[in-house]
Amino acid sequence: KMAAPGARVIVTAERQARALIAVASGKGGVGKSTLAANLAIGLARAGRRVGLVDADIYGPSQPRLMKVEGTRPDAIEKQLIPVATPHGVPILSMGQLVAPDQAIAWRGPMAAGALGQLVEGAWGAADTLILDLPPGTGDVQLTMIQKYRPAGAVIVSTPQDLALIDARRAIDLFAKAGIPIIGLVENMAGYACPHCGTVSDPFGRGGAEAAAAELNIPFLGRVPLDIAIRTASDAGEPPAARDDDRIFAPIAAQVAGWL
Ligand code: ADP
User: Fold this and answer.
1) Centre of ligand 1 from the C-alpha of residue 175, in Å
2) pLDDT digits over 238-248, tens only?
3) Chain segment 97-122, per-residue pLDDT in tens
4) What is the pLDDT of residue 6?
5) CB of 72 closer than 6 angstroms to any ligand 1 atom
6) What is the distance in A from the centroid of ligand 1 to the CA of 29?
7) 80-86: long-range pairs with CB below 8 Å, 24+
8) pLDDT-derived band at 259, boundaries 50, 70, 90
9) Ligand 1 center–CA 235 separation, angstroms
10) What local confidence, expressed as pLDDT, does residue 193 receive?
């Protein structure tokens, strides 16, 4: 009977020592999951012990990004065991909790309960958990903020998304809850020519940086719209896993510096 309370104390201390970093966006399709995967890998390469929680109920894409599509986590006494990936970042995903190809029609409380199972998985020695949130400002976000209080949030937007106010709403959600915004990443910023690599700016340049300055949050950098990022992601080989990555490593370094 004496062991149980002691064990609980260890779990609590472990949880406090572990930084939960939320990756959020105002709407879907802006590259939030892509950034979360690359940030997790980048931080792991920078020496952190990182776990990745895929809480995106609308499109849990981390199993594919991290090359463990179709895997299921084991459980010990109802606690989920994160699945190891080739990128040194174990994951738990909403997508692993439902049958493949099954449409996910989560009710709010169900999604919030599932989030708990993922965050409270057997993360062991992980010192950092990257949390890929669903887009927007729904039940999963509220549970995450109220129950798990992330150390900080990284916001992802496209140049147009920022102009369209959605990203500001996501920023506002964290700001109102007193959760620090680590910074803003602009994705699909400019177009990288697949032939010569030159980046052009069909949507103009500097908008997100200006918006970050206006909102008084750090600007962490821009990621160009590059077909190589899409194909690498689909193949389960995020660019951050490559030694020659020059795009995500500086972003991960800034987050590592913040931690
Ligand atoms: P979200 O999580 O915001 O819904 P995803 O990360 O799933 O968005 O990205 C949506 C799609 O866009 C994916 O097919 C992804 O590979 C692609 N994508 C994301 N960022 C880029 C980029 N910078 N260049 C090219 N394709 C990208």
Assistant:
1) 25
2) 999 999 999 99
3) 887 666 667 788 888 889 999 999 99
4) 45
5) no
6) 6
7) 80/117, 80/118, 80/121, 80/122, 81/121, 81/122, 82/51, 82/121, 82/122, 82/123, 86/236
8) very high
9) 13
10) 86
Residue 7 has pLDDT above 90, yes or no: no
Average pLDDT score, the chain:
89
Instruction: Name the token pair of 149.
Output: 């209080």
Q: Is 158 in the pocket of ligand 1 (CB under 6 A)?
A: no
Residue in 233, 237, 247, 251 to alter for ligand 1 test, most ligand atoms within 8 A of Cβ:
233
Minimal-distance CA residue to ligand 1 atom 15: 230
The number of the ligand 1 atom at minimal distance from the alpha carbon of 225 is 24
Question: Domains of the chain, with CATH numbers?
Answer: 18-258 (3.40.50.300)
SS3 of the chain: the string is CCHHHHHHHHHHHHHHHCEEEEEEECCCCCCHHHHHHHHHHHHHHCCCCEEEEECCCCCCCHHHHCCCCCCCCCEECCEECCECCCCCCCEEEHHHCCCCCCCCCCCHHHHHHHHHHHHCCCCCCCCEEEEECCCCCCHHHHHHHHHHCCCEEEEEECHHHHHCCHHHHHHHHHHHCCCCEEEEEEEEEEEECCCCCCEECCCCCCHHHHHHHHHCCCEEEEEEECHHHHHHHHCCCCHHHCCCCCCHHHHHHHHHHHC
**C-alpha distance across the termini of the chain, in Å:** 37
ipTM: 0.99
- Of the candidates 199, 185, 195, 202, the residue with the CA atom closest to the CA atom of residue 240: 185
